[in-house]
Design a protein that fits this description.
Chain A has 551 residues and is mainly α. Helices cover 44% and strands 5% of the residues of chain A. The chains are: A mainly alpha (551), B alpha/beta (308).
């Protein structure tokens, strides 16, 4: 039963993960697991110093843990399910003792929890490092998903001749674009290390490290279901050995309640059927808690140390040039990303936005904005552009560090401005007939104008929303001759981007008449606009007589 | 002509058979023979009807598509824009031709392009996928991976030595080009010959390395569509090739075997960037004509004009 529910939860998690793409319907919260995570919510709210509506979903988990106990770890957590599965395949036959100083190690997760909260309080969001849900989502995004696509494509390649002979032409030409990410290897190494730790003790992560487990363990002893051992117990200690959390005391009748995840493995293995998890109504509760409840393994000193530790990590991490540079950062953030410092506070580095990104332009940062910016999404526009008919990154963001915007709003959420680098441009520097940036620009922000007698591409900044099609398609080798710079980006915590763009006199719905203006400039019969712009052509050189391509 | 109970009466049968025999004994019917002499067929009307009319006037699709052949249709579906923008071929033009190929007994019909925008969005937003969906045996593909291309030599190439072309095109029997009439900021206009660039892998070198007009003519020496049907029901007369720009409605479908002639006529149906041009004034068409790829002067062309 538990295995089934676990597998089901992992399946739902995976399916929602796959559904996180540009076709995601508005009603489906693909990020629901991350929304339900109370540690993420708490950390983001503390760091951002404001209530995040999507984080309120986590009250469901908090509330149900108060009622039932720490069931989340056994039945819901997809990371727990993954660990259980991998332990079953890899470490089943190994003799795993756990540690001598069990109780001491268990405190680690609580210290981490306090550390993450206090660093969040001091403005550095760190919980993402070890919270199981963003952790697993990252692993899925940066490792499993690209691997999955590779395998699918290999299979398709293998079967292609067969499909072709069968006349299944669609399938015979099926090919999924391979997603690639900068941080794949690091993400994988960290994940592998965590799994390898299970070599030492079952559910090593859940027992000793998981800060979300720590949070739930604080409140789980209040739950109404508790392990009861009847007098039939013959102290065979089978349950103690089987307990994945090591929550059964040397005296098998006693339970370490904060650590019990209600998985009921003990009840299954008990030869006497002496273990049960009855519902304890509030009346009987006080009496029965008595000898069984052993309090949270936590000391005042440990609390103070970890609290201070979190504050000082946050303090130190903030004392780098990265912090003052947040106001003039170099990164192109996704459209709809809130102000940079708030963005760094609230982004939980789950990687959902990067997974769902239609073009694969969203990439994880490594050190570009310091310790506070690890794994945050940036746009790598030389690699891929931002498609104007897609707004999925905001839809799937569980903390709304990227705001969920309509397509219209998203179009106006300018992420930067393209800058033409004349010394590299084939047209400016070499008089080639290149026009790719102009051809591909979805907003007609690049136009040809006559400059000193030659037709040259120029960027109209007020029409450029930084989508990066030009930067990506520029045919020169190496760095693009047209590069999107964060200059002019619009980042709003609230309110309408359309309004803001209007205020700034930006226009992302281009005027179709612009090419005619080019014709006027290039010496054709003048339209009305001839006088609207002074001709930049001085005497000497011969101005071209016709638009490109015409003789 | 059936009998009252739904059966064919003997008399009706004999009448029909005799008529058929007479027709076949008499050789090709006069109107068909006449039309085959035309270089071009220009039909005005809405996209579906004009396309149908153009196919009929060309002597029927079976002139080009025999039973059991593999057909590739090359519309322009490179941009994720709706048909009203005039940047992509009208879905009904594509669907009409696809249906005709199926009716003529084609073994498979593949509607193919290498889009400039994300493939899925192009298929959806151009409406071409939806329009072809009900037709059995027609497959609409927007492919973006190099494995679907194969290198071929360009023996008559002036600037191109070799070029990677869609395998599906190289392996098929018939290629029908279905371009959209629009402006293009490098080649002036983008019609049939320019549309062929959507069948090759490395199109960026056309802009960066080669003279695009020469390279297009080179390309036209290796990719030779049996039939070109130019969709000028809408013409994007500025802002091309991607739009948005000014869209005019010539309401014409232009069909022909000679790719230069079709394009040359296409140049004359709308003012591009507010100016009237002739085919000769379009550099890549002139180059193609000079390389012997087709006729360019409208005065020398036999044009059949009709209304659908």
């Amino acid at each position: 039963m538990r295995t089934f529910l676990q597998a089901l939860s992992l399946l739902i998690f995976s399916i929602l993960f796959i559904f996180a793409n540009y076709r995601l319907p508005d009603w489906l919260p693909a990020d629901v697991y991350l929304r339900l995570d109370p540690l993420l919510g708490l950390s983001a709210v503390l760091a951002g110093k404001e209530v995040i509506s999507r984080a309120l979903w986590s009250l469901i988990i908090l509330g149900s843990t108060l009622v039932v106990g720490r069931f989340f770890c056994a039945y819901v957590c997809p990371m727990g399910a993954t660990i259980d599965f991998l332990e079953f395949t890899s470490f089943r036959k190994k003799n795993r003792q756990g540690f001598k100083n069990e109780a001491g190690w268990r405190k680690v997760k609580s210290f981490l929890f306090i550390l993450f909260l206090s660093s969040a309080l001091a403005g550095l969001s760190l919980a993402y490092l070890m919270d199981p849900l963003p952790f697993l989502t990252r692993f899925y995004t940066f490792f499993l998903y690209p691997l999955f696509i590779t395998v699918i494509n290999l299979l398709l390649d293998l079967l292609r001749p067969l499909f072709d002979t069968l006349g299944w032409i669609g399938v015979a030409h099926l090919h999924y674009t391979q997603p690639v990410y900068y941080m794949t290897f690091i993400t994988f190494l960290i994940f592998a290390a965590i799994i390898a730790l299970s070599r030492f003790a079952p559910r090593f992560w859940c027992r000793y490290l998981c800060p979300l487990g720590a949070l739930l363990s604080f409140i789980s002893p209040l739950g109404l279901f508790k392990r009861r051992v009847s007098p039939e117990c013959n102290e065979c200690l089978k349950c103690q050995k089987a307990c994945p959390m090591g929550a059964i005391q040397p005296d098998p009748k006693r339970t370490n309640l904060p650590e019990c995840i209600q998985c009921r493995t003990c009840a299954e293995v008990c030869p006497k059927g002496a273990v049960s998890f009855p519902f304890l109504s509030s009346g009987k509760r006080e009496a029965k808690l008595g000898g069984e409840y052993s309090g949270t393994a936590f000391s005042r000193r440990g609390f103070l140390y970890s609290f201070a530790g979190g504050l000082s990590v946050a303090f130190l991490a903030g004392r780098t040039p990265f912090t003052p540079l947040q106001g003039k950062h170099q990164l192109i953030r996704p459209p709809g990303a809130v102000l940079e410092s708030e963005f760094l506070h609230t982004c939980i580095r789950c990687g959902e936005c990067m997974k769902s990104c239609l073009t694969n332009t969203l990439q994880p940062c490594f050190w570009e904005s310091g310790l506070s910016g690890l794994w945050t999404p940036k746009m790598d526009l030389r690699f891929a552009p931002c498609e104007q008919n897609c707004n999925v990154c905001g839809k799937v963001c569980p903390t709304q560090a990227i705001r969920s915007l309509s397509l219209e709003e998203k179009t106006h959420a300018k992420v930067g401005t393209a800058v033409l680098r004349k010394e590299l441009c084939l047209v400016w520097a070499q008089d080639k007939l290149c026009l790719i940036c102009d051809e591909i620009c979805p907003y007609n922000a690049i136009v040809f104008r006559t400059v000193e007698g030659y037709r040259r591409p120029v960027v109209i900044a007020s029409r450029c929303n930084g989508c990066g099609f030009c930067e990506q398609r520029c045919p020169i080798q190496g760095e693009s001759a047209i590069v999107v710079n964060p200059n002019g980006e619009i980042r709003l915590k609230e309110g309408s981007y359309v309004q803001q763009a209007k205020k700034l006199q930006l226009e992302f719905k281009p005027d179709p008449g612009d090419d005619k203006y080019v014709l006027d400039q290039s010496g054709f019969k003048a339209g009305e606009r001839k006088d609207s712009e002074k001709s930049g052509a001085p005497g000497g050189t011969k101005p071209p007589q016709k638009p490109k391509g015409f003789l | 002509m059936g009998g009252q109970n739904g059966q064919v009466s003997r008399r009706d049968f004999l009448k029909t058979a005799a008529a058929g025999l007479a027709l076949s004994l008499g050789g090709k019917p006069g109107f068909l023979a006449a039309k085959e002499e035309h270089d071009l067929v220009v039909i005005s009307g809405d996209p579906a009807a004009a396309t149908k009319g153009a196919l009929e006037a060309m002597g029927g699709i079976s002139r080009f598509v025999a039973k059991g052949t593999r057909v590739v249709l090359k519309p322009n579906m490179s941009f994720s824009n709706p048909p009203e923008w005039g940047s992509t071929t009208h879905p009904l033009v594509v669907a009409t031709v696809a249906q005709a190929c199926i009716d003529a007994g084609a073994q498979r019909v593949v509607v193919l392009d290498y889009p400039l925008r994300p493939a899925e969005l192009c298929l959806k937003r151009t409406g071409i996928q939806a329009a072809c969906k009900p037709i059995k045996g027609v497959h609409v593909l927007a492919l973006e991976d190099r494995k679907f291309f194969r290198e071929v030599k360009v023996p008559q190439g002036k600037v191109l030595d070799r070029v990677e072309v869609f395998k599906e095109v190289l392996d098929s029997d018939v290629l029908i080009n279905l371009p959209q009439a629009k402006t293009h900021s490098a080649t002036g206009v983008s019609l049939g010959i320019k549309n062929l660039m959507g069948l090759i892998w490395d199109r960026y070198s056309f802009h960066s390395r080669y003279n695009i007009n020469q390279a297009l003519a080179d390309l036209a020496t290796v990719i030779k569509p049996q039939l070109t049907i130019l969709d000028a029901t809408r013409a994007l007369v500025s802002g091309g090739p991607g739009g948005p720009g000014e869209v005019q409605k010539p309401n014409l479908v232009i069909a022909g075997i000679d790719p230069v002639a079709v394009d040359s006529y296409g140049v004359s149906v709308a003012p591009w960037y507010g100016q009237n041009f002739k085919g000769r004034q379009v550099e890549h068409l002139l180059v193609a004509h000079q390389r012997g790829l087709g006729k360019i002067d409208l005065e020398q062309l036999q044009v059949f004009k009709g209304k659908a």
